[in-house]
Design goal:
Number of helices: 13
Structural class: alpha+beta
Shape: elongated
Helix content: 40-55%
Length: 274
């Protein structure tokens, strides 16, 4: 009697193309979470993660979700965090953003002054890349990290945990990104109004106008640019004539009535546009 095959040699191998990596449910949830956060929170997570590996990122997020971040303070261009770990005392985490001087903050105010509804959008956390470059950092390497834990890696799981909680706080409260630079919405709004007023005054004093000239300019205004001259295109020619005929048939009894109605529409359009 022939020995039974264990089945290991009955496998038929076929080339089904390149193997594709399937994301785990945790990864899918993580991607969706980052995608739905506000721009400032998204940048925090992305920049910090670029300095760490997948294992520390996963453990750091578990720490954050498990309540290990017992302290989080945002002030003076830095984020100070406390993370409960394997020792009795919590580990101290520091995330430093690059230094910004008054000129940089002035550029931010100028950007806001030139954009309509910029302050209102900022209150909702809707910041563009230019604003985030000033408020947070332009590149991941602009950030500085430190932790008192024994891990020798530059970005450990405790830094990831603090960054995760920081992103969550920024997502819930858009003012946090401004507090990082010692700003609040009231000061920002005042600065933007000052920038707008200064730009308006500059536009009137560029030619060193006298008081009489300013008064005349106020009442008479400036010469407006010429109006655009769009190319004339009859609406009847651009429309579908068959649809127009179908509409006219519902109120016309003969072809003569139909043609007359189309002609009347054409004449009406001509008189309205000439």
């Amino acid at each position: 009697m022939a020995p039974q095959d264990s089945g290991e040699n009955n496998v038929i191998y076929a080339n089904f193309g390149t193997r594709k990596r399937v994301s785990t449910p945790e990864e899918v949830n993580r991607v969706d979470r980052v995608r739905t956060m506000q721009p400032a929170a998204t940048r925090v997570v992305n920049f910090v993660n670029q300095h760490s590996d997948s294992g520390r990122i996963s453990r750091g997020r578990q720490y954050a979700a498990g309540g290990h971040v017992v302290g989080l303070d945002v002030r003076n261009g830095a984020v100070h965090g406390k993370v409960a770990g394997s020792q009795n005392e919590p580990f101290a985490v520091l995330i430093q953003v690059p230094y910004r001087n008054n000129d940089d903050i002035g550029r931010l105010s100028e950007m806001f002054a030139r954009t309509a509804n910029s302050v209102a959008r900022a209150r909702e956390g809707l910041l563009d890349d230019g604003a985030l470059d000033i408020l947070f950092a332009e590149f991941p390497d602009d950030l500085r990290f430190s932790c008192t834990c024994p891990d020798s890696e530059y970005v450990c799981k405790h830094v990831v945990a603090v960054a995760d909680r920081l992103a969550a706080r920024m997502d819930a409260d858009p003012s946090v990104i401004f507090a990082l630079r010692g700003l609040d919405f009231a000061r920002l709004e005042q600065s933007v109004m000052a920038q707008a007023k200064s730009a308006s005054e500059d536009s009137f004093t560029a030619n060193e106008l006298s008081a009489e000239e300013r008064n005349a300019l106020f009442w008479q205004g400036r010469e407006l640019p010429p109006l655009p001259e769009p190319k004339y295109a009859p609406a009847v020619d651009d429309s579908d004539p068959e649809l127009l005929r179908k509409a006219m048939r519902s109120v016309s009894h003969t072809n003569i009535d139909l043609l007359r109605a189309v002609s009347d529409v054409d004449d009406l359009y001509y008189h309205l546009t000439h």
